[in-house]
Structures are given as structure tokens and as C-alpha cells.
């Protein structure tokens, strides 16, 4: 299912998602906002993609912070 980085090839994959009666009203509230889409599929896809983006930004930020801390302690270039 994955393609090499930089490839412009895309493939549509169907994913079945089951939401509880407590979760579905959240989708309805997001739908009212309109920014994440109007259909259940659009909303769930966009929420997932937004979560992935934020998660990756956090990982990159944590990595950069760790390097800066090591450098500040004079540990740059040292082997563990």
C-alpha cells in the first residue's frame, strides 16, 4: 500500500470505522464547524491527518529539544 517517497501515485483505500454512541456526537459537532469536511469520511480522514501532523511536529520538536539540551550540557559529539 505504501509508495516510495516523492511518488505522485495515490491509491484509495476503504477503511471501516465503528464509532460508539458517545463518539458520534463529536463528529456531528465537528461537522457543524465545517472546516474538517461535511461527510463522516471527510471528517474522520481530516481529523486523523491533523492528528498525524501534530504528532510528527511534536516528535520533531522533542528531537530538536533533546539535541539542544545535549549541546547545552556539553555532550555534543560524545558517545553514550
Account of the 3D structure:
The protein is mainly α and 80 residues long. The chain has a domain at 46-75. It has 2 helices and no strands. The chain has helices at residues 24-33, 40-72.
Short description:
This protein is mostly helical and 80 residues long. It has helices at residues 24-33, 40-72.
List the keywords.
80 residues, mainly alpha
Shape, per Cα inertia axes: elongated
| Largest sheet, strands/sense/barrel | none
Per DSSP, what share of the residues sits in E-state strands of 2 or more residues?
under 5%
Based on DSSP secondary structure assignment, what is the total number of beta strands?
Answer: 0
Topology:
Layout: H1 24-33, H2 40-72
